[in-house]
Amino acid sequence: MGSTTQMALSGQKVTILGAGVAGLTAALALSRHGAQVTVLEQANAISEVGAGLQISPNGVAVLRALGLAEDLAWRSQRARAVVLRSHRSGSEVLRLDLDQYGAGLPFYLVHRHDLISILADAVRSAGIKVRLLQKAAKVDPGPQPVVHLANGAQCTADLVIGADGLHSKAREALNGAYTPFFTGQVAWRATVPNTLDLGPEAQVFMGPKRHLVAYPLRDGSRVNLVAVQERREWAAEGWNHRDDPDNLRRAFSMFGGAAAGLLQQAGEVSLWGLFRHPVAETWHQGRVAILGDAAHPTLPFMAQGANMALEDAWVLGESLAAADSIGDGLAAYQAARRDRAARVIGAANGNAWKYHLRAPLAWPAHQILKLGSRIAPQKLAGQFDWIYRHDVTGPA
Prior knowledge:
Layout (H helix, E strand, L loop, with lengths): L2 H6 L4 E5 L3 H11 L4 E5 L11 E4 L1 H9 L3 H6 L1 E3 L2 E6 L5 E6 H5 L5 E4 H14 L3 E3 L4 E5 L5 E4 L4 E3 L2 E4 L6 H7 L5 E13 L7 E7 L2 E8 L4 E9 L11 E2 L1 H7 L5 H8 L4 E8 L7 E2 L2 E3 L14 H18 L3 H24 L12 H14 L1 H6 L2 H4 L8
Parallel strand pairs: 1-2, 1-12, 2-8, 5-14, 12-20
Antiparallel strand pairs: 3-7, 4-7, 5-6, 9-10, 10-11, 13-16, 13-18, 14-15, 15-16, 17-18, 19-20
Helix pairs in contact: 2-6, 2-10, 3-10, 10-11
């Protein structure tokens, strides 16, 4: 590390709000450059709701650079393909061979809890402090930022990083309040036993105004389900809202084949509304910055939420380490990240309709996909190279 690293980060006291993927990765990225990091988490334990995540090569690159790639491989399923299927019969429409496409770059299917555990273990090994039951109520940015906690206490630091998710107090301090837009879509999430012996592939069952994604987790004994439906009825945002599994089965009653078998086994499901959030205009002010969902919440249709958080955290650490001052480092971080985050989120916003086609459009669209997969499979797979092959840890 050069002298600029010593000037910008070494010995700086950094407080990170949130012990999710973004917060824990940022703690590791900043600590490796000499920062004294404390993570504040509002829950009573480091844990994570939800179930499956898809970690694409751009996210794997960050975990590899942090020395955690082997841990990820041990606790994940390596995805071999993405398979698009018809909803009624489950017949294959398109198969993207990830081994062939990836050229050695792995895609992993991991339980969210396992990824959090990997990051949390690394944080503890690095001697980074994590304080639980510390809920932020307000953040005052400035040359000496202050975090006001819900219990009335205050925390000061040389740098405050908001990794506090959708309802970020740090984002609000930098950008003001805003109202997200309900997309007219809701999503159910569940995990079920893998009694159908599904292999390490991401299966997408495409139907009218809805689709179902299924892939195995951990040792392959469980399957993660995410079911998205277009509907007018509003649903609250967040993953903790329980719903009757029969509501899920009724909404997808026209799905047959393997999809029907998977849905029949759903015993406990969560339901949440899908909302569009604007990418924050301001990612830093004074000595406060934001990253991950606090800066750019994304819809799940490109499976990039966790991957963007991993990228953000790495770039934040490297930008600060390479700068002559904290201010210069934060400016470089936003300049490096905002346009890419906006482009990825735009791709996610525009992707859902492709899975929700109705007659008479569905059949010809599926035939075009089948033909394209035979004639030019690399072209189909490579349309998102700019996302998956992007490596923030490599040479600029």
